[in-house]
User: Which sequence fits this backbone?
């Protein structure tokens, strides 16, 4: 009997230790045959299965079956002493607890814009992690998620986050700046204690009790409300900082409970932080007018017109974008950009629609067809049709065109030259049309009779 129990214990331990179903392209996976979903996992628990730079794919094929990679499993990258960077694709929705636990050499993580949850202690002990972009698809950050990430210097809480576990950022002693993203409605307690600067946009309607009560080093608080927000006296336990408020509102704050304890100056130049996900392209929709004229490395575009005869979209680069207008962004994946709030911006003609709160988008809306930003099967970025309802996070946008004008158009590829978006060309249902030629004015031509530059398959070519 004793030998039997020992054997069973050994078998059980073996199953737990070697917990993977497939090894493909340098990564270990657990596979769900019923849903065709894959979870990234480890080879041997606690030994550190990976090193170097890892790019997790959106799909993986094993034994002839294709699986969507949807989860970074518990302990998947934990204790990987030689792992320096990881890029997580848009297909991943969950990062489970202890996923990157105590991986001290990890310097950079790019999260796809579909991640909704970051588990407890997911990045705890990643002491070399200098930056992490939390996309605005994330709704929950677990307890101790970024505990002792001592190389982080700034944290931006996206507007999608509705819960932050206790001590989520405890021990992040070098984080000096805490930013609540445009669209956030509640300033939650992050567990940060060494912050010197806090930025709170006017979209915030409440601040959690004791949110900053352990923050004794605060030097500057920047707020966007023209009318002071009523807050509890326990939000700040020690006040020896400067409060920056919008121009012309100083008197209101001088007479407001709690806020009047600060040194108040009405010089707030409010900045909205926009962070790109795993792609150089993104869409956005803000609650305030934005000024991109001096933002280095980030460009904003609207869809200013549509030509039914050619199926071409006119793309216009904009320095200023009005509040609640949808627009296209081109920058660098994983980068964060500080965009100033504009003082006054005129309404523009724009075929892009946006939302400042999460919603479910249908393929059509009345007599219009909707297109969302994604990659097609060939890996080409553009706006494409979709078959069923899709979830659109807050502060995102999509393309909307009258159905009568786009009956045969299933999508629009982005045309780019030297880093500049020069247009968006349609993708027709007929595969035979994929090699069609267009001139630089967007007119379709039967053949290139003269030497010059033409557009084919969404790219500029020489003939």
Assistant:
């Amino acid at each position: 009997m004793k030998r039997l129990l020992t054997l069973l214990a050994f078998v059980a331990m073996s199953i737990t230790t070697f917990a993977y179903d497939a090894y493909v392209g340098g990564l270990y996976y657990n596979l769900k045959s019923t849903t065709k979903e894959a979870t990234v996992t480890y080879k041997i628990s606690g030994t550190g299965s990976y090193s170097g730079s890892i790019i997790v794919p959106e799909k993986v094929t094993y034994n002839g079956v294709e699986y969507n990679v949807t989860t970074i499993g518990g302990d998947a990258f934990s204790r990987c002493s030689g792992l320096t960077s990881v890029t997580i694709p848009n297909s991943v929705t969950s990062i489970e607890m202890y996923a990157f636990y105590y991986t001290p050499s990890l310097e950079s993580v790019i999260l796809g814009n579909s991640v909704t949850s970051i588990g407890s202690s997911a990045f705890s002990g990643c002491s070399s992690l200098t930056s992490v972009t939390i996309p605005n698809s994330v709704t929950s950050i677990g307890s101790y998620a970024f505990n002792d990430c001592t190389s982080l210097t700034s944290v931006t809480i996206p507007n999608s986050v509705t819960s932050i576990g206790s001590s989520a950022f405890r021990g992040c002693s070098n984080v000096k700046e805490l930013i609540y993203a445009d669209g956030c409605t509640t300033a939650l307690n992050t567990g940060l204690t060494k912050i010197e600067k806090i930025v709170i946009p006017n979209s915030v309607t409440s601040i959690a009790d004791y949110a900053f009560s352990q923050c004794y080093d605060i030097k500057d608080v920047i707020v966007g409300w023209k009318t002071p927000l009523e807050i509890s006296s326990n939000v700040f336990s020690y006040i020896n900082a400067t409060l920056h408020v919008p121009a012309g509102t100083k008197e209101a704050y001088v007479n407001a409970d709690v806020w009047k304890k600060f040194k108040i100056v009405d010089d707030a130049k409010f900045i909205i932080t926009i962070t790109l996900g795993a792609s150089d392209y993104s869409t956005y929709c803000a609650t305030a007018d934005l000024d991109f004229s001096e933002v280095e490395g980030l460009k904003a575009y609207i869809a200013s017109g549509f030509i039914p005869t050619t199926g071409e979209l006119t793309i216009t680069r904009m320095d200023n974008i009005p509040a609640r207008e949808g627009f296209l962004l081109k920058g660098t994946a994983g980068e964060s950009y500080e965009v100033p709030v504009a003082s006054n911006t005129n309404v523009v003609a724009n075929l892009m629609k946006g939302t400042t709160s999460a919603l479910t988008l249908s393929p059509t809306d009345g007599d219009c067809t909707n297109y969302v930003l994604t990659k097609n099967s060939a890996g080409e970025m553009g706006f494409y049709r979709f078959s069923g309802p899709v979830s659109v996070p807050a502060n995102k946008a999509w393309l909307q065109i009258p159905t009568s004008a786009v009956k045969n158009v299933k999508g629009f590829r982005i045309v780019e030259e030297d880093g500049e978006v020069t247009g968006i060309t349609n993708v027709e249902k007929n595969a035979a049309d994929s090699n069609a030629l267009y001139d630089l004015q967007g007119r379709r031509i039967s053949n290139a009779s003269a030497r010059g530059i033409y557009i084919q398959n969404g790219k500029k070519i020489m003939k």
The chain is about 5% helix and 40% strand.
